[in-house]
Amino acid sequence: MQSNAGWDDVVKVGSRAASTRTGTARTSSAINAAQRAGTIVGTEKKYSGPNSVAGTEGQRLTKIDRENEVAPPKTISMDLGKTISKARMDKGMKQSELAQKVNEKPNVINDYEAARAVPNQQLLGKLERALGVKLRGKDIGQPLGGPKKN
Question: Is-above-0.70 flag for pTM?
Answer without folding.
Answer: no
